[in-house]
Design brief:
The protein has 112 residues and is α+β, with helices and mostly antiparallel strands. The protein has one domain. The protein is built from two helices and four strands. It has helices at 19-50, 75-94, and strands spanning 6-8, 14-16, 55-58, 61-64. Strands 1-2 form a two-stranded antiparallel ribbon. A two-stranded antiparallel ribbon has the order 3-4. Strand 1 (6-8) and strand 2 (14-16) form a beta hairpin. The longest helix has 32 residues, at 19-50. The chain is flat, with a radius of gyration of 24 Å.
Length: 112
């Protein structure tokens, strides 16, 4: 994959960015766009709920108010879940549980 993002060097000549620089810029842009999208999503949802509209067909697509369930369990199930977590931790510490490691990229942007 080749990068299409360039920057200007000190002589105002285009210089191809490194993948690291391009990644950092894209990461920052994605955060900004995600925040904007979340704000618009909340506005659209509020508007549709106020108008009691379950579906809105627009020139750019269909927006639908979906009903998501949030479950609340009994104390018995909560206790079983805690016991399950404790058993998992025990097996991890004793080596009975196995794992596979795979490379993963973590990026921490510098604070400006």
């Amino acid at each position: 994959m080749t990068s299409s993002i360039t920057k200007l060097n000190k002589n105002s000549m285009p210089k191809k960015m490194t993948p690291y620089e391009e990644y950092a810029i894209l990461d920052s842009q994605i955060k900004v766009l995600t925040n904007q999208k979340d704000e618009l999503k909340a506005m659209i949802l509020e508007d549709m709920v106020e108008r009691d509209e379950a579906k809105a067909d627009t020139a750019v697509g269909t927006f639908t108010v979906a009903k998501l369930k949030t479950w609340t369990y009994t104390d018995r199930v909560a206790k079983l879940e805690e016991e399950f977590k404790a058993q998992k931790a025990q097996e991890e510490s004793t080596g009975d549980a196995t794992y596979v490691e795979k490379p993963s990229l973590r990026f921490n942007q510098i604070k400006l």
